[in-house]
Fold ORF1_6 protein.
Amino acid sequence: MKEACIGANEDGANSTYDTEITLATRMFAQVKEDLGKLVAATTMNNENFQNVLADLTSSHIKGGNEVYIDVDPQSVDCVHFLIDADIAVYHRNDNHKVRLMDLI
């Protein structure tokens, strides 16, 4: 009886975890799609902006100590736009580095 109860609890935990992962994946995909639409609408001819977003996204996916990217003089306007839109944040000790905000 004890083993059956433990097994049922584990099945419930796995089910909840799978549901949460599915939901988080769907949310991330929706945010990614919305961000893609925003970039397409606002930066038709601005490759700098697209490069900054690509760098931020890849550093965010890598995680760890590499979530921040350096702000180049060419990308300052792009970074300010992302900061004002609450998409990116400055490093708390170094204003020459930014990262994507936590999406969830």
The chain has a mean pLDDT of 81. The first helix runs from residue 2 to 42. The CA atoms of residues 13 and 53 lie 36 Å apart. Residues 43-104 form one domain.
